[in-house]
Amino acid sequence: MTSPTVPMPTQPSTRAEARDARADAPRRGRLARIGDAMLVLAAAAGAICIVLAIAAAVFDVRVTLFSTGSMSPTIPAGAAAVARGIPASEVRVGDVVTVDRAGKLPITHRVTSVAPAPGGALDARRITMRGDANAVEDPFPYDVERVRIVVFSIPGVAPLIAAGATPPVMVAVTLAATVLVVAVFWPRRRRRGPRRRRAAPSRRTS
Q1: What is the per-residue DSSP string for 25-36?
Q2: What is the DSSP letter of 199?
Q3: Is pTM beyond 0.70 here?
Q4: Which of 95, 98, 133, 153 could form a disulfide with 148 if both were Cys (CB 3.0 to 4.6 A apart)?
């Protein structure tokens, strides 16, 4: 009479096989962790850039860099200010505003007087301005229909923003981001331990 086939239990793995099995688990080195952190920072910076681009297009928000100290100590040289566009009819004495000038760089000073612009549109205003660090007002008044009012400023960041917009820095950042992406997402080989051999079932006879 032949008894039913009984499978033999598999043998426990050896230390070498256990070590190889542990090596099969995904392990990420220090470079990969740094790469992940840099990617998170890059994603955050990209999100900020997208938000600023949308704000500039929809809400007329701009970033102004201060290379001189004419608005010190309120806004020192090297600061960056965020300003939003408003109609000139909303300007009040004491506001710090940016005015565009034909053929020249925009100027950001404090408003000292506001009056209707002679012969201008209904919302046009003639304003005079003066820098906080200046002893006299600007030489000429400004006839404007729209200005950008400063919302807040951050000291010391203008050189960083200006440097980040230069072609060499942009190329370097692009290359660094490419290297990080490749380092993080490049497929890694996993070591495989020796295959276990299943014991052949034995047959017992009686």
Answers
A1: S----HHHHHHH
A2: P
A3: no
A4: 98
